Amino acid sequence: MSGARPRKPAATPPAPAAILRISSRNYSSWSLRGFLIARLAGLNFRTITVSADDPSTRAELLNNASSILLPCLEHEGAELWDTIAIAEYLNERFPDSRMMPEDRIARARCRAISGEMHAGFHALRSSLPFNLRATIPNFTVWSAARGDLERIFTLWRDCLAEWGGPWLFGARPSVADAMYAPVVLRARTYNVALDETCEAYARTIEAWPDLREWIDAATQEPEPRITELELDAEF
Amino acid sequence: MSGARPRKPAATPPAPAAILRISSRNYSSWSLRGFLIARLAGLNFRTITVSADDPSTRAELLNNASSILLPCLEHEGAELWDTIAIAEYLNERFPDSRMMPEDRIARARCRAISGEMHAGFHALRSSLPFNLRATIPNFTVWSAARGDLERIFTLWRDCLAEWGGPWLFGARPSVADAMYAPVVLRARTYNVALDETCEAYARTIEAWPDLREWIDAATQEPEPRITELELDAEF
User: Fold this and answer.
1) Residues of chain B scoring pLDDT < 70
2) Does A116 fall in a domain?
3) Which residues form the GST N-terminal domain (chains A, B) (predicted)?
């Protein structure tokens, strides 16, 4: 030991150059999807929460916006303000990340069901607002949202049967799991009954370490409550 | 000539193996996008129109569907029922097609604005229904749809300024032009005034041979009229 050069203090690692701007951990399902996708890519990034007092951010959270501009990824001069765009950009940039299924047919299915979530299911989104912290045990799902849920459960069952689970495309999580993870959390918030297959899938999602980290952050660093998004609020 | 072997009759070329199922040439902006994207990829495909009497197809055309399942591309065992999924699948499968901008930053922007069209602009879609054959000269665009149009025109102007036109990303059409082409046609149907820059872009889109072919087919082989989508109908 004597004669050893004095140790330099550990260098502070540089802040990640990539930034993911999000609107809310508690209320924004799209922000969660973007976060999970960036993690799937193995990206070194930091997350910045834009204030919900910003009018356009608030409109997005209230499902009133023309365009969903968050999450937004800034990476090496590129700016991507759409979740699927983030996924495809990162998949192309990090081809070894395996964030998309390796098999061509599975990858096509992954893209089709991810796109379906991206463009559709408006009844589900508007009538079961995403709200991580809430639990509403006696919620009644009206028929249009029920139809959305049935379609989603069918998509899950088909994938789990074809690729063997526990994730939608087999042994590893993919972009599609990130796209549908918020539906699992909505099912928990609103106490939606799941059949055995979908329940097993929901538990896989709930045990996803990156998702747990997000939930812990949402719970431990509570954000301002947005009354219009609290369905148990009395009007 | 004498002694030449008799000519065989020209072989009938095999029908393309790839199929693009669409809902309507006149009423479906998503079908048009899928068609333009398949053409950008250089894909050899044929188009099949699903009957608008099919209840789920009709719901899509009437903007009432949970999920948009058309256009749907069937290619070498893969089935893709989402427009962005079709674009990314074909871009990956035909890397020489240059259907996405070659520059990484431009490609990121192309994906961001394509995703924005895919997930947003609901006021525009619902209040200015896509209808190729119609002309409604005295239409009043209400404020929410006006906001959507202003946002879209800003996206166009930014791209045209940054990449020099005449297409959104320079000298060649890309996936983003396919995504926004239906907005140009909506502007014509509803007589929306365009500034000089956007008017020049609209003319580039209107002169796109693949788009002309689609319009000619919609005009020459008229599909059944869907009364609920004809805003000049008297109720």
Assistant:
1) 1-11, 13-14, 222, 231-235
2) yes
3) 18-98
